[in-house]
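thought: fold this chain, then report.
action: predict
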Amino acid sequence: MRSKSSGFTLIELLVVIVIVAMLAGLASLALPNREGQQWRTRLEQLTATLNFAQDEALSRGTPLWVMVDQNGWRFFRVDRFENPQPLNQPEVFAPTAWGVPLKTTPAELKLGDDAYPDIKTLNFLYEDRTAQIQRNRFGRFQLELR
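observation:
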């Protein structure tokens, strides 16, 4: 009498491995691009912070400065001796890093004037994406992603 052996055949195991591999491939395609999301979030954060800083500078009657470069952005005030004093309070003014490698031309902006005769544009490049933060003549900043 022949006894039946229990277990899986080689073909059954290979079919299961192929199915699992296909599901893993589909799952990896469905995962969002975290760096792309972080890039967009940081640009939205910068735009909102610039608008807040503009309002803050206008309400206090004291200009604020912001330096934007490839490392991130920093806010500061200039004291009576023309020395920059970094701002860390409120927390929204603390130096912030991009968290992703992007390209931009370093820019220094003065905030707190009532009107700006020249429209200022900050350009950003990350991989194949571009973005602009533009200050209109009233001092409001707007983000445009491309």
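thought: worth noting. The CA atoms of residues 19 and 25 lie 10 Å apart.
final: tokens above.
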